[in-house]
Known about the structure:
The chain has 8 helices and 6 strands, in the order E-H-H-E-H-E-H-H-H-E-H-H-E-E. By secondary structure, it is of the alpha/beta class.
Amino acid sequence: MSPPGTPRRRSIVLVRHGESDLNAAGRFVGRSDPPLNARGERQARDLAAEVVRFAPEVVVASPLRRAHQTAELGAATSRPAGGVEVDARLREVDFGAWEGLTFEEARERDSARFAAFESGRIDGFPGGESVQDVAGRMVPTVTGRDAGRVLFVSHATVVRVTVAALLGLELAVYRQALARPAPCSWTELEETPAGWRLVAYNAEVVRG
């Protein structure tokens, strides 16, 4: 036990939602609101055992159905007394003109910007959000809670941008620096006197 007066060490867990049909089809899924498909529901239920291990004091989810359903299914066996909170700032990035497109369709319609995206360096999305905007709403969201251990259920791009921002990486190269999180994978960060430390990234449930 820590001595009286010792500040609690904070940790955050960022979970990507389970699979939806649009994700499985390889489309840009930002503000679109598809539900989990059957596989996504199974992924969320498998996540429940890990949520027990995390023992979060608070569970917060994006309002988009695929994330909120993941939180409800994945946190069902270890839900804090307050239930699952919803925070609109956890929503996926606004992909703008690329929303709903496959990679090939985006490449054909916006070749120059998509070439930058494929190279691993992009400042934002045409008609949508910049990565700085995403970091600007996500960092205070995940660091502003007065709790020792908080689990956030969100989306792939915002997880990557948030981790890059907390670790002090250049945001424009978040795709080069950090792999795309798998459905229902989790990323854990711990606060230290020197800043945030990455404990686990894109960890997945081991299925027998």
